[in-house]
């Protein structure tokens, strides 16, 4: 584990951002991704969590200037995100605001620079969590089944109908992150995060970002990958249904009616607000 940061904030009052990159077998792209993230305004810390890779991902990330930690065996994307968020908390300044968390996948390469667009909405208080909507990716082999299942689960629990419900590139405040911790497991993490943050009364927004990432095709590996995504999304949703983690539909009715793509969405003021 890297040593804790000194507690004195050298630039008091400025909101800083930590990038967290979960990475499994990403030796080819992780260094480029790290360099692109380091150039994002307000970023002063990039943490790569090597999730049990065997290809030297951690070494490439460290050589590119990231703080790195490693799971000795893979624990899945959500667990890598949690590890990264803990490392950031240990390095936040005692006398300053907690850093915003910017989660970025390791396979974005240079295009990770476009995730800079996710920071201003959170810094300016427009949203507690900003989510990237990528352009259509060439070669993607899915039929939209996982995306539709994820979207409809979010809509049913919160009224919101996101364009890119599985998108992993997200900037959020520490408070919004805590509202969703512990995160839903594996590939259910994005759906769980979106539902939990909205149920906590927070605001989300989608932002178009010109990013590219490796897509899974229509071969066996791609189909198996999508089957795992589907399974994890259903698990995240089932867990929340069991615990009744949702916004009552009569309460989100008007927010849902007035929503529009790329505008901020808040389902309700939160469960502790009187008269809810
Ligand atoms: O066990 C794992 C598997 C993946 N990763 C990392 O997680 C990120 C996303 O994985 P990837 O294989 O690129 O997934 P995609 O199929 O491209 O995932 C899409 O859908 C996922 C949800 O199902 C989101 O998390 C992604 O952001 C979104 O790009 C990458 O940095 C991986 O290295 C891990 O850390 N551990
Ligand atoms: O990562 C993704 O976006 C999914 O693999 C998409 O799968 P789908 O096309 O079946 O929704």
From TrEMBL:
Reaction catalysed by this enzyme: (2R)-3-phosphoglycerate + UDP-alpha-D-glucose = (2R)-2-O-(alpha-D-glucopyranosyl)-3-phospho-glycerate + UDP + H(+); an NDP-alpha-D-glucose + (2R)-3-phosphoglycerate = (2R)-2-O-(alpha-D-glucopyranosyl)-3-phospho-glycerate + a ribonucleoside 5'-diphosphate + H(+)
EC id: 2.4.1.266
Keywords for this protein: Glycosyltransferase, Magnesium, Transferase
Residue stretches in coiled coil: none
Cofactor: Mg(2+); Mn(2+)
Domain Glycosyltransferase 2-like: 19-145
InterPro entries reported in the protein's UniProt record: Glyco_trans_2-like, Glycosyltransferase_2, Nucleotide-diphossugar_trans
Protein name as catalogued: Glucosyl-3-phosphoglycerate synthase
Gene3D superfamilies documented for this protein: Spore Coat Polysaccharide Biosynthesis Protein SpsA, Chain A
Name of a matching Pfam family: Glycos_transf_2
Protein family per UniProt: Belongs to the glycosyltransferase 2 family.
GO molecular function: glycosyltransferase activity
SUPFAM superfamilies: Nucleotide-diphospho-sugar transferases
